[in-house]
Specification:
This protein is an alpha/beta fold. About 40% of the residues lie in helices and about 15% in strands. It has one domain: Rossmann fold (3-Layer(aba) Sandwich), CATH 3.40.50.1820. About 45% of the residues are buried.
Length: about 230
């Protein structure tokens, strides 16, 4: 699978397979819950070979308060937007997809494409029972360390700025939203990934595997190649 991901970015293979080349657009990669930037290193290398300018968001482990984490994402988006003089694309895996949706809704003037891989886009906790237990443990840790900005942090009742942006109507007239999902996903309930405001693409494979899935990579390339809407 990793070899295929490398092959997908090879110029000769790209020319023969119809995988669209990148246009130099900056792309911020957002890892999933409990994961860090390194978990998307293969995707980052592939996007670079394809012709984009990929960047991480500085996450060692995606376990912080959502509001604080989104502020970090916004800082990276603002920096790339300023340096490149164009809107930025976002690709988020699992919880990273929540940030992609919220960031695009918050700043459609700076975000051109938002691509979600295996994320519940209807609610933030449409996940399996074991994952809910992990979420509860992280929430308890945030509470004990005083890093919660709202009493309902890490719940569907949170009222922070992230939650408001995540729940607001998505600006489909300004940002292209794509949701890639698998019915074999054992972590996130796949039905939550199918939303009317997104171009929904079904692939096969596991939840974690979406970060390396060749069908998901093709869907990402196709989504990024779509011309941006007026910002």
């Amino acid at each position: 699978m990793l070899e295929f991901a490398r092959l997908l970015g090879d110029p000769v293979y790209v020319a023969q397979s119809g995988v669209p080349r990148g246009d130099g657009r900056p792309v911020v990669l957002l890892p999933g819950f409990l994961a860090g930037d390194r978990t998307l290193a293969v995707m980052r290398g592939w996007l670079g070979r394809l012709g984009y300018v990929p960047a991480g968001c500085g996450f060692v482990a995606n376990v912080d308060c959502s509001d604080r984490a989104l502020e970090r994402v916004e800082a990276h988006v603002n920096d790339l937007h300023r340096r490149h003089g164009r809107r930025v694309a976002l690709v988020g895996h699992s919880r990273g997809g929540h940030f992609a949706r919220a960031m695009a809704a918050r700043a459609p003037d700076r975000v051109s494409h938002a691509i979600s891989l295996g994320a519940d886009l209807r609610g933030v906790i449409g996940v399996s029972v074991p994952t809910l237990a992990a979420v509860a443990a992280v929430r308890r840790g945030l509470e004990l360390t005083g890093r919660m900005r709202a009493q309902q942090c890490f719940t569907s009742e949170c009222t922070c700025a992230f939650a408001r942006d995540y729940c607001r109507s998505f600006p489909t007239d300004r940002v292209r939203l794509t949701s890639v999902y698998s019915k074999e996903d054992g972590v996130v309930q796949w039905k939550g990934s199918v939303v009317p405001e997104a171009d929904c693409v079904e692939v096969t494979g596991s939840h974690v595997g979406l970060a390396f899935n060749r069908k998901a990579y093709r869907a990402i390339a196709a989504a990024l190649a779509r011309p941006e809407l007026e910002g």
